[in-house]
Amino acid sequence: MPLFKDGQFVPDVWRRLDASEELPTNGHILMTLEDWHVRAPQRAHGHASNVAFGLLLDPDDSLEEIAAELPHIDMIALTFPKFSDGRAYSQAQLLRTRWKYKGDLRAVGDVLFDQLQLMARSGFTTFEIQNEATIKLLEAGRRPDVHEFYQPSLGPDEVPAGTRPWLRRPG
Predict the structure, then answer these.
(1) pTM of the full structure
(2) Average pLDDT, 10 consecutive residues per value, the chain (171 residues)
(3) Backbone angles phi, psi at 39, to 5 degrees
(4) For 91-119, how does the pLDDT look when each residue is reduced to its tens digit (9 = 90+)?
(5) CA angle, corner 80, sides to 78 and 84, nearest 5?
(6) By three-state DSSP, how is residue 90 classified?
(7) What CATH code would you report for 3-167?
(8) Which parts of 17-163 are beta strand (E)?
(9) Domain edges within the chain
């Protein structure tokens, strides 16, 4: 699937590890939370010291159970099972603010053009896109283009507006 990062399509270096495969000795490996726990002894004993680990999380997976291991996770892919399911936005926000996760956050699943800017504002840095219309729009150079927001984002390029009209009270 096409991978969009930093305003362009890029090759995906991450490989999804099948549960039946042996843990490789090098590369970029993406695994489910269940597989992450099953392979904990292998990971802990340095079996894969040249492996960059990525974790694929579903919306109902607990972030608390991986919080202590975040420094050892290079990429987290958060799943959007359908466009109306926004739990991954909350997961991204928590990873960035509560646990100060600095690694790559990838949006996977039902990622649509109109959501890209909001996903980026929530902390996502990479987008795995399946939707053909979204791919065509991005290939044509189109970008979501909203410039004013009610809330500040996690993005480094956005400066919160100087006034907030919803806070104004009659004098």
Answers:
(1) 0.84
(2) 94 90 88 90 67 94 94 96 94 95 97 93 95 96 74 57 53 47
(3) -90, 10
(4) 999 999 999 999 999 999 999 999 999 89
(5) 145
(6) helix
(7) 3.40.50
(8) 26-32, 50-57, 75-80, 104-109, 126-128
(9) 3-167
